[in-house]
Amino acid sequence: TVFPWNTPSAEILAMNPDGIVLSNGPGDPTDCRAILPDLGRLADSGRPILAICLGHQLLALAAGARTRRLKYGHRGINHPVKDLQTGRVTITSQNHGYVVIDDSLDESIARVSHIHLNDGSIEGLRYRDKPIISIQYHPEGAPGPQDSEYLFDDFLQMIRDRQG
After folding, report:
1. What does the DSSP 8-state code read for residue 136?
2. Which end of the chain has less neighbouring CB within 10 Å, N or C?
3. Per-residue pLDDT at 77
4. Cα(113)–Cα(164) distance, rounded to whole angstroms?
5. Model confidence pLDDT, tens digit, residues 119-150
6. Local structure of 99: helix, strand or coil
7. What is the pTM of this model?
8. What count of other Cβ atoms lies within 10 Å of the Cβ of residue 110?
């Protein structure tokens, strides 16, 4: 089921979804502050969430982080991103002008999981006590072509784990 950006969390949760994907989109994430309380309720619901690009930024804002505008943005398909857990570097597809500010999110809420190797900016977060994967780049873009497929596998595993 696809919902418009401003759908109340109660309506989404009433559908009893197995998982929630917060997709990408254009623009300054701070222009979307009105939906942050609903995103916080989705994050607190215990449902697995995969947040991509703007979804990643908005979820971080809902958790108390801040974002900043990049001078030129990250555009194109040759951006190296390092997974800090595995040390693996993937070549990613990106199209954004904002990033989550380093150290603006309480480490007890989430830890940085991925970084952009060209400028060191945050490219991913793993939430500590919630089944949430949050990624700045476009894993569905597949410039690798399957380098980031593991993120979808991890998301599906979180859904299976929740279902018991």
Report:
1. S
2. C
3. 87
4. 26
5. 999 999 999 999 999 999 998 876 666 788 89
6. strand
7. 0.94
8. 24
Q: Encoding tokens for residue 57?
A: 């930024």
Judged by DSSP in three states, 149 sits in helix
Q: Are 137 and 24 in contact (CB under 8 A)?
A: no
| Tokens of residue 135, six digits | 């990624």
Question: Considering only CA atoms, which of 40, 128, 123, 29 is closest in space to residue 84?
Answer: 123
**Would you name the residues annotated as active-site residues?**
53, 138, 140
Q: What is the Cα gyration radius of the chain?
A: 15
Q: Crossing angle, helix 36-44 and helix 54-62, to 10 degrees?
A: 80
Q: Are 75 and 53 in contact (CB under 8 A)?
A: no
Per-residue burial over 44-59, b if 16 or more Cβ lie within 10 Å, else e, is ebebbbbbbbbbbbbb
Residue 23, judged by CB atoms within 10 A of its CB (0-12, 13-18, 19+), counts as middle
Beta bridge partners of 110: 127
Which SS3 state, helix, strand or coil, does residue 78 take? Answer: strand
